[in-house]
Amino acid sequence: MLNPKLLLSFSLIIFSVLAEANTLEDIQKTKVLKVCIWPDYFGISYRNPRSGALQGLDINLSRDFAQELGVKPQYVETSFAGFIADVENRNCHIAMMGVGVIPSRAERVNFSAPYLRSDVYAVTSKSNTTIKTWDDLDRPGRVISVLKGTFMEPLMKQTLKQATLQVAERPGERERDVESGRSDAFMTDYPYTQRMLANTDWARVVSPTRPIQPTDYAYAVAKGDAAWLARVNQFVAQAKKDGRLDKYATEFKLQQIVVKD
What we know:
- The protein is an alpha/beta fold and about 260 residues long.
- Helices cover about 40% and strands about 25% of the residues.
- The chain has helices at about 5-20, 25-30, 55-70, 85-90, 105, 150-160, 175-180, 190-200, 225-240, 245-250, and strands at about 30-35, 40, 45, 55, 70-75, 95-100, 110, 115-120, 120-125, 145, 165-170, 185-190, 205, 215-220.
- The strands form three sheets. Strands 1, 5, 6, 7, 8 and 14 form a six-stranded mixed sheet that branches.
- The N and C termini lie far apart (about 55 Å).
- This is Cyclohexadienyl dehydratase.
- It holds the Pfam family SBP_bac_3.
């Protein structure tokens, strides 16, 4: 006779698998595509502070995707520290927010084919005369900031040998620390450097002189639903083929990091 606890556990697993396999059905039933975004991601999924409107490459593409599915997009605001739980808990059907594909994330969510690829960049202040090149970052006495939950956090934990790593918990914290001089630089990606150059008069970008960690960006979905992942990949392939990815990337000055294959 089966142990009642084992039977219950097995039943829950079966229920979970069946629930996971119905994403497309849920979207068509509710007529809504729930999209996780980080609304502070300039050029990707950015809420304009003046108008309140969402804009960016992934905003345009998510609207196109919803239209192709015959539904409306509904945006769920999250963060890089929290999006995986939102995807797993079905708070959103898909994360379309320039998510870097790294092993720790791939253990918990499935990724589409990549559509962008960015290396790591440093943002310092124009008044900081001690950081002139990439090699000036990892020096004794330097303080380097990263945003919690981004792929720069584990990367810098692994690579910084002499500088002090400072992990910012809140959006805008690392920028304020660099501007005020509390930290020397913060690590980010290509899209975010464009925000800093466009919206501040104090920021200066330091590019790597050699590849540091070029990272693919893709869309994230919950595990266990092959049909939904295939539909997402179909959309990504079509957006590349018909030129929409290039068009939107050019609009938001991201054409340098588009993955065409």
